[in-house]
Input
Amino acid sequence: MSEPLGTPVPGQPTNGPVLDPQSPSGSDSPEAKPYTPPATQADLDRIITDRLSRERAKYADYEQLKQDSVKLKGIEDAGKSEAQRLADEMAQIRQERDALAAESLRRQVADRKGIPTGLAGLLAGSTEAEVEAAADQVLAALADQQAQAGPRAPKPDPSQGKAPTAPAAQSVQDARQRYREKYTTQIERNRRG
Output
């Protein structure tokens, strides 16, 4: 069963010519030209332009098909009863509600478990228990990743390198006392002189 493509299977009829997988054009005809690479950039540009125009021709009626699809949708909707249209709208609204409820549940569990907001989308499940189990798995994966990364470098202390400052005054009396201690000699000189 592992014959190359185009090889006839014994005992089964063939529907048309058998292609030789070794030939570049896929046929055994003597008119087949061997492949020659383009000689100039102009030749390559011409080959690419021809190929693009063939591809564009395949999809030339795409806009018309889109318009026909919209018209068909309108005709189908007109054929539906008012009750059927309302039922379809109700089903769509329910789907949107369920999607929003699931997103809300994921965010609530992520907040409760301390998972970063950007990772809340990783939580899967339709019930709270399933989402919490997924949250536990995410937390375990984060812990493993942090353990493999090793200890973090300490954050710099912005107060390092500054001159020590006096403690803040607790009351007016404390401030007066510190002032007297600091400037006692100056005050005494002023009184004498």
Notes: Confidence is low (pLDDT under 50) at residues 16-21, 23-27. The longest helix spans residues 82-113. Helices lie at 41-58, 62-79, 82-113, 128-149, 172-192.
